[in-house]
Structures are given as C-alpha cells and as structure tokens.
C-alpha cells in the first residue's frame, strides 16, 4: 500500500489527487484544502491571472508556500497559438516545463478543440514541454496525443464544472484498456467523492478536481472526502474486485441448482 | 487625544466618524485631492450581509449586519429595498447552491418576480429575495459622510497631504490606506476588480439584481437617473487600472442576460482597482504600538467599514480587544463559528 506511487513524467507522487485553485472562498481555505487532502500537485490558471508582468505573484506565492508542485494550465485559451504562448509564459513564471494544456473549442460546454489540442501538444512537446493534455474520452485523439509526444493523458468524465460524474463509462474503460501503461488522469466533470472512487476502481491513475471541492459548502472537508474516496477506489482496483454475477437469472437448468433450492 | 486617520476611503471616513463620536480629536489625511478616490469609488455599494454568505465566512455577515443601520439610518444614504438573486433557467443548480449557503431570504416564483421588478417579468422563473438588504451609491455615500465630518468640530480634513511629511506626532495613527499599506502589511494582497457604469432609459430596477452563473456571475445595481453599476470581476492579480476588453465583453454579456436592453445602453464609465485582502479574505484590526491598521476589507468595504470603525474606536478609547478581528487566522475563523480546524485536525490524526 505504502509503495503505491504514480509517476508523471519523471516525478513520483504518493497522492493521486490533483487540485485546481480557482473559485475557493479564500486562498487560506484553498491552502487548508490542499493540506487536508494531502494533494501534491495544484493547477494554476495563468492566462487571466497573469495580466501584465508578474501581477499574479501575490496569489501564486500563497500557493507556493503550501509546498506543492505547480502545474500551470492554459485555461481559457481557444487556439493552439494562444495556448502555446501561454505555456511559454508559464514556463518562465513558474520555472517548470510542465503544462496542463487546454484548448477550448466550445464556450458553452468548455469542450476541448481536439484538433488544436493535438497541434499545440506536438509543438510544445517538440519545445521540451511535458504536456498534460485535457482531452475528451476519444480513443483516436488519445492515440494522436501520444504520437505528439504526450506521456500523460487527461480525459474528461463530463464537461468542466458540471459535477455530473462519469458520462461515458464505456469510453473511459476502453481508454484504460487501450493504454495500460500511460498514466491516465480523469480531469473535469466529477462532483461527488463516489465519482472519484468509481474512476479509480476502473484503474485510472489519478483524479483532477476543482469545482467539486472549491464550490462545496465546506471545501476543506470535501477535499478530504475526495482524498479518502480516491484512496479507497485505488485500493479497490489493486485488490482485484470479484467479478459480478447475475444471480437473478440462472442460466443453468433446474437440475443444476444448489440442493437447498430443491428441498 | 488626537488620532490621525490616514486614507479617506470608506474605511478611513467611517473610522474618523466613529472616533469623533467618542470625543476624540480626529485629523483625516488623504494624499488625493478628494475623499474616496481609491477603490471605494468602484464599489457595488450593496449592503448585503446575507447574500455575501455565498462565498464569505459567517463573520462577514455578523459584522455586515451593523452596516444596514449605519448607512440607512445614521447616515441616511442607503435604500432598503432588498436584493434579488436570479439565475438563467439552465443554471438553476446555482440558485439551489446559493440558497444552501445563505439565509434570510424568500423564494420567489415568476409572478413574485414580476410584481417586484416589472422589467424582469417573464425573464426568470425563480429567484431569492433578501428583503432586508440595502444598497447605496458609494460616491454619494462618501460625500455625505465627508460632509458630516466637515461639520463636526473635533474633525479636520486634509486633502492633497502626504501623511509621512507631517511633523507632528498624534497619540494614535489609524492606518486606512487599503492596498497602499502593503509596505507595512506583507500578508496583504490585491484582488483585481473591474466594473462598468451603464446608462439606459429602457430599464428600471428598484434593487440590486445578482445573476448567478458558474463562470460569469454579475450584479446590476441601480444608481438612479438611468445609471446602473455592473460588476465585478474577481481576478487574482495586482495589475491596477486596466480594464480588459474581455472583462468588458463578459460584464456586458452578463448584463445583457439580465435584460436585453442593456445591449443598447451607453457605457458611461469603466473602472478597475485592487481590493485589499488577507489570505483568509477576512478583515483585520492590527495594533502595533499606537498605530492601528484597518485593512483586508476585500470586496466588502461598505459592508464592513462601520463595524470595524466602531471596534477601532473602542480599541483607541477604551483599550478594548475584539478577538474576531484582532486574533490570528485560526481564532478568527473559530470566532466566526466555523469548524475547519476540526477538519484539519482530523486529517492530521489519520495521517493521510
């Protein structure tokens, strides 16, 4: 149990929870949520907070003080070009080659533009970035992202901020089965701790959350609840659950039934 | 006793008022040429202690309740007409969440909304109505308060004056400089806010309307004579006085969703400044020798200034102590009735 770590690019982590940092009641509550969950990576949106120069520094330093690794993201970017420019700025500001790549194609659902995403992922990987692409559950897109140089994939469970949980369990299972050795992180759409437990039981490597925690009535308690659910789901996956049986519909003839039923 | 209040924004003017009422000789020193030229002038002016519970700690509502009486009766500048909270049909979950976090409201249906705000008839089918809340025009309020102070014999006002250049040493310095006090308060940060003032003769509202949205919540506050304040962005950066095109588009777009006639409104003004905030977004009275800092009012300047001013005056005159605004972080939250420390402890015990 204690040696169950996950490695993202060259970094080995014991927490399988990543937290976004937007829309908490205050930075102090964000920091408490991070501590209560044991999370080791937080995402920080750069594009809007950056403004000119290093205007977001006060907020970023509050996050840095918690002692977690920062995964800058390109939230709000709508073209590959914009995302690439934002990633380059993030590399300078946060001194990291990690980038969570978001290229939004549809404003209403915040669905990724997978074409722009693959283009940006290739350009950034070629430029030495370690790219964490926010993508849909599409298998072929996943394949193209790996071809483009990504070594981690972050498929959605449902649209960002919807809290719906897993919209398409079949697609997520197919993705997991198809890429057994690629770290897969469910990013977006989870609302309740049970959703996180479910994807961890499916064999996903980690979960990224923002709204589900930041907009909960008590974000600190919810962060903790998700951490426990992720730990439970992961343990459940490793423990190899029994295969479900459909006992309500016996497929054997009556003579094959257990003796007690014949009495 | 002489108290020098530095800064003539809402915090400084309220502090001066409270001190003067206790018989203290007060000298207000402001570097600008008039009162309220800092971030106070861009405030929404909503005295909405219960609505603010949506994202603020209970302490903000407790302190904020004191502001209702202060602005509406004592200064006589606020209108108690309630606050109306609506959400687009597809964002009804936001309304449910808002109701879960707040209190002191009635739930309204489409008929009630039409009765309350005829111009919103047919636009929303559910709303929350915070009947006891008030709103004011921040600029008019600061002028009224300054006028009141100017008539008070034990108060002097000095504009265009750098406090550091003054040779005399008062008994107390009340530092109300907002974000400018960052030199003395390293934990202070600025949270950028942008607002618009629109003019439209096609719409009439009686009270502030908050429209909820997961990404672009907005409020529209009627200021009279066809003017509406639309605010406000909340951005974690300290870039001052730059209103971005994106923010204008978002604010106008959201106002348009409240009422389509806003699309034809005139943009009278755009404004941007920094809200001074500590890491927990809670206000603080910080006593260092004979300097008392009133700061961290964040997005709640008009809501919190009267309560903080009263406490500041008690500190200066009677050496009082108010743990809810004078203790360190954890105690503040405990005083505010939260149980977050228990959660943190529970996390520590299980060692995850």
Identify the notable features of this structure and list them briefly:
heterodimer, A: 263 residues, alpha/beta, five-stranded parallel beta sheet, three-stranded parallel beta sheet, 41% helix, globular, B: 352 residues, eight-stranded mixed beta sheet, six-stranded mixed beta sheet, 17 strands
What does this structure look like?
The complex is a heterodimer of chains A (263) and B (352). With 263 residues, chain A is of the alpha/beta class. Chain A is built from 11 helices and 12 strands. Chain A has a 5-stranded parallel beta sheet. In chain A, helix 1 (27-37) runs parallel beside helix 10 (219-238). Chain A is globular. In chain A, 51% of the residues are buried. In chain B, the strands form 3 sheets. Chain B has an 8-stranded mixed beta sheet, sandwiched between helices. Chain B has a 6-stranded mixed beta sheet with strand order 9-2-1-10-17-16. A 3-stranded antiparallel beta sheet of chain B has the order 3-8-4. Chain B is α/β, with parallel strands linked by helices and 352 residues long. Helix content of chain B is 32%, strand content 24%. Chain B starts with a strand and ends with a helix. Chain B is globular. Residues 330-352 of chain B have low confidence and may be disordered. The A-B interface holds A 25-29, 31-32, 35-38, 48-53, 55-59, 62, 161, 211, 215, 217-218, 220-221, 224, 227-228, 231 and B 55-57, 97, 100-101, 189-190, 192, 214-215, 235-239, 242, 246, 277-282, 329, 340, 343-344, 346-347, 352.
């Amino acid at each position: 149990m204690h040696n169950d770590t996950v490695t993202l690019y060259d970094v080995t982590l014991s927490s399988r929870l990543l937290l976004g940092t937007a829309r908490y009641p205050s930075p102090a509550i964000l920091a408490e949520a991070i501590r209560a969950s044991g999370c080791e990576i937080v995402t920080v949106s750069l594009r809007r907070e950056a403004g000119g120069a290093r205007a977001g520094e006060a907020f970023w330093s509050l996050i840095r003080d918690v002692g977690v690794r920062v995964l800058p993201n390109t939230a709000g970017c709508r073209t590959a070009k914009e995302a690439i420019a934002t990633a380059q700025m993030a590399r300078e500001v946060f001194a990291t080659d990690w980038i969570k790549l978001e290229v939004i194609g549809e404003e209403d659902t915040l669905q990724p533009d997978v074409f722009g995403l693959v283009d940006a992922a290739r350009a950034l990987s070629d430029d030495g970035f370690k790219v964490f692409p926010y993508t849909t559950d599409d298998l072929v897109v996943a394949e193209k992202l790996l071809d483009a140089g990504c070594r981690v994939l972050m498929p959605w469970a449902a649209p960002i901020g919807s809290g719906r949980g897993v919209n398409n369990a079949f697609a997520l299972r197919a993705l997991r089965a198809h890429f057994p050795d690629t770290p897969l992180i469910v990013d977006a759409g989870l609302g309740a701790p049970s959703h996180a437990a479910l994807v961890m039981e499916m064999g996903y490597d980690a979960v990224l959350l923002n709204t589900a925690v930041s907009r909960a009535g008590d974000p600190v308690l919810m962060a903790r609840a998700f951490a426990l659910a992720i730990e439970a789901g992961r343990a459940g996956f490793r423990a190899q659950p029994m295969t479900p049986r459909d006992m309500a519909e016996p497929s054997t003839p009556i003579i094959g039934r257990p003796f007690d039923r014949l009495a | 006793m002489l108290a020098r209040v530095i800064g003539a924004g809402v915090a400084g003017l309220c502090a001066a008022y409270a001190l003067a009422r206790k018989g203290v000789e007060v000298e207000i020193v402001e570097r600008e040429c008039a009162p309220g030229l800092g971030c106070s002038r861009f405030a929404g002016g909503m005295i909405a202690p219960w609505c603010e519970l949506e994202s603020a700690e209970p302490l903000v509502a407790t302190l904020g309740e004191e502001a209702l009486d202060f602005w509406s009766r004592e200064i006589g500048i606020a209108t108690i007409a309630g606050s109306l909270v609506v959400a687009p049909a597809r964002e009804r979950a936001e309304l449910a969440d808002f109701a879960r976090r707040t209190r002191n409201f009635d739930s309204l249906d489409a008929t009630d909304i039409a009765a309350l705000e005829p111009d919103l008839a047919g636009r929303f089918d559910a709303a929350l109505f915070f009947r006891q809340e008030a709103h004011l025009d921040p600029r008019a309020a600061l002028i009224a308060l300054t006028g009141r102070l100017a008539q008070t014999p034990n108060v002097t006002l000095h504009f265009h004056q750098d406090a550091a250049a003054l040779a005399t040493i008062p008994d107390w310095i009340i530092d109300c400089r907002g974000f400018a006090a960052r030199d003395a308060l390293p934990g202070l940060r600025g949270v950028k806010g942008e607002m618009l003032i629109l003019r439209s003769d096609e719409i009439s509202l009686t009270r502030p309307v908050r429209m909820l949205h997961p990404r672009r919540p907005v409020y529209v506050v009627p200021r009279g004579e066809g003017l509406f304040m639309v605010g406000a962005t909340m951005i974690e950066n300290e870039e001052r006085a730059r209103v971005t095109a994106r923010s204008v588009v978002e604010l106008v777009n959201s106002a348009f969703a409240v009422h389509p006639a806003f699309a034809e409104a005139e943009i009278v003004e755009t404004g941007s400044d920094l809200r001074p905030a500590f890491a927990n977004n809670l206000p603080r009275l910080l006593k260092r020798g004979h300097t008392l800092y009133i700061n961290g009012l964040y997005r709640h300047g008009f809501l919190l200034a009267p309560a903080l001013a009263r406490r500041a005056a008690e500190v200066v005159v009677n050496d009082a102590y108010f743990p809810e605004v004078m203790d360190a972080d954890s105690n503040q939250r405990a005083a505010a009735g939260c149980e977050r420390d228990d959660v943190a402890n529970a996390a520590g015990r299980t060692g995850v």
